[in-house]
Amino acid sequence: MKIGVIDAGGGFRGIYACGVLDYCLDENIRFDLGIGISAGSANLASFIAGQRGRNYQFYTEYGLRKQYASLRNFIRKRSFIDMDYVYGTLSNHDGENPLDYIAIRENPMEFIVVAANAVTGDAKYFDKQDIRQDEYDVFKASSSIPFICKPYFVQGTPYYDGALGDPIPVEKAFDSGCDRVVVLLTKPENVLRTSEQDEKLAARIRKKYPNAAEKLRQRANRYNAGVALAQEYAKQGKALIVAPDDTCGVSTLSRNPTDMQRLYEKGYADGKKVKSFMQTNF
User: How far is CA 173 from CA 36, 155, 168, in A?
Assistant: First the structure.
């Protein structure tokens, strides 16, 4: 049986899924396929590498640094989050907290990183073949929130956040051969996403990237439809949705350490649901 896990990301709310995945590492829970969107791709990279606690440090320590995310970055580099600092300076083999690329490469778990082509608006599904030692551009592309960050170029093509392309890639997981899927959300399952903020950001990029802007305008509806589909699969026993009952005040770009600690602890506690799901006969 092939079991997949989807980490839908959510900026700094991703610390919730980080907690779930740390629990899975502690309990030796493994998956056959991981699909990461935005911050979820970083969570899964450390999970596949077996680096328990690595992402927690990125959220609660490095994330507070001005080099990581700041108005200064936005003014100087047109990106609130400095992707090269996060996935280069910190994560390279000689960085402060290197990603264990060799462990990722040797782990048989499949890995898909979702981004959105800024020109066409279409989803792009990167895999392990697109990741090399100290070449983590796919994570940078997947995490580039429109307008908040400039699009990140991979082999000459600009990409935005994977949530524009495929916010809840449940169908992608099953199309990739999964029999069961764990879906990690970072906001309550039954809270519908609204489009007000997306509309504002879409207006900022519409002139240069009209197709990506349109996908951004549609993101809320596609996110809600993706959750609804996951819920249908859950009724059939084919999926498990793990989501917080409360975000503890953490939003996409908020970085209050106390709030993030609470949300992480919620995720770690909710990891027990994954263990039960994995032990259930199907």
Answer: 11, 25, 10
Give 106-132 pLDDT, tens digit per residue. 999 999 999 999 999 999 999 999 999
What are the structure tokens assigned to 231, written together?
A: 């819920």
C-alpha closest to that of 137 among 122, 148, 123, 151: 151
CA distances from 148 to 76, 79, 83, 122 (A): 13, 6, 12, 19
E strand or H helix that includes residue 158: strand 157-161
DSSP of 75-106: HHHS-SB-HHIIIIITTSTTSSS---HHHHHH
Q: How far apart are CA 50 and CA 223, in angstroms?
A: 29
Secondary structure of residue 66 in the 3-state scheme: coil
10, 257 in Cβ contact below 8 A?
no
Per-residue pLDDT tens digits for 41-95 = 999 999 999 999 999 999 999 999 999 999 999 999 999 999 999 999 999 999 9
Q: DSSP per residue over 34-46, as a string?
A: EEEETHHHHHHHH
Tally the residues of the chain.
282
Here the tokens at position 204 are 């900022």
The answer to whether the beta carbons of residues 189 and 137 sit under 8 Å apart is no
Measured from the Cβ of residue 67, the count of other Cβ atoms closer than 10 Å reads 14
Closest CA to 10 of 195, 259, 185, 214: 185
| 234-259 confidence digits (pLDDT tens) | 999 999 999 999 999 999 888 899 99
